[in-house]
Amino acid sequence: MTDATHERRWLILGVLCVAVLLVAVDNTIVNVALPTLSKQLHATNSDLQWIVDGYSLPFASLLLAGGGVSDRFGRKRVMQIALLFFGIFSFLAARSNNISSLLTARALMGAAAAFIFPATLSLLTTAFRDSAERAKAFGVWGATVGVAIAIGPIIGGELITHFWYGSIFLVNLPIVVVAFVACQLVVPESKSPRIRRFDVVGLALGTGCVTLLVLAIIQGPDWSWTSASTVALFVISAILLVMFIRYELRRDGPLLDVRVFRNRSFSAGAGSIATSFFCLFGFIFLVTQYFQLIHGYSALSAGVHTLPFAIVTMIFTPLGAVAALRIGTRYVVSAGFVIMAAALLWMTSIGAHSAYFGPVIGAMIVLALGFSLIGAPSTAAIMGSLTPEQLGAGAAVNETTREMGGTLGVAVVGSVFSSIFAPQIRHAFLHLGLSHAQLKLAEGSMQGSRAILAHVPPATPGHAGLVHGVVTAFMDGFHRGCLVAGVVALMVGVVVYGSLPRHVLRTDEMVRS
Length: 513
Fold this sequence. Notes:
By secondary structure, this protein is mainly α.
């Protein structure tokens, strides 16, 4: 690293955070546009699910490729090329006038994002010589991810309110231009110091394994976790994983040196990040529905009501990195999980009529505080375990676990919710003489239940009880989902306490390239 690079390291961090913001916001900005897309593009529920997941699947699947390619050909170069393609595909998504073209554009955006994200983390690691400063930089980087996830629905709601649905994609273009130009002017090039043949077989096996695993997680709730299709995806994914590990162990220059997983800091850090996003995405999945379907907030209002989470995350994530340096990584990360567990368990006591300015916002702030203590120290544990030639692959592992944890959180917490909600709705609606299709609609979601109730005359005996029963079924599912997420957080907190080191140690020479 040159002295000039060292002097502008904080400016480099700012540029990288712009790129991170661009990619991370697109994970959630589309959610509030789903009703509009359903109406204007005649999208089915399955179409809507894939508009969201169609971005996440290629994103998670190609992260290993993104890390490997950036290590070999230059992290700055690969990120800039990917930024240009992200802008092109965003424009195509904005101009889409049917579901097929929109799904294609979203998938291509996710693929481009997979070549942006690992490069940002690798470039950040090489830009900071001092381990303490590097940890603080990870804190800012992590705060950017958390804030992006929280403000996505707010930005999307505002754009949908005043413009057409394509605006949520078109807004990416000026950000792409700013990120590209700033990167060219500020960020130095960086690549792996070891030149090696590109691991095509390892890339194919690793990408196939992650793709099938994420697809199984996404489709599990719809297909049933025990269906032949879901089980087959899990089995094939496991086989590809074994093949990937065996191949990489034999290779002199592997895409990912799987031996790094023997390092407890690396494995515990990756597990911590996956679990924190498991809990966060599961919670967001529930609470956004709680705001809109129980409290009656609009899509924009629901997004605004999550703003305290973003503010706390923005403030405390960098402070979490500082705390880990002073107190110790294992203490801060495990405390973060205990705090997250406390917040999620607190949510199990919140009722349908609980005041927002009270228990609801209180639990959200506590959850954000716990989440803020986990990301930066865990990322430091991962990246601090690697040699310079492993940085891209390590950054890919960091983000892959994040994506898979979040996807699994929505799938598992959503399934827990449905396992409570559906039987209660079936029991409450059985006496109405509904057809099988109507009953399935009512069981499928709160919206479906209300759609059926809208056709039941208010004078029908027991109508008030039905309305109460629907709300009770939702809240019971909400509470059980939060309980499961809280227990998971608590269990992982205990595990990482015994696995993470007190401090992440790494010599400055190991990060210079």
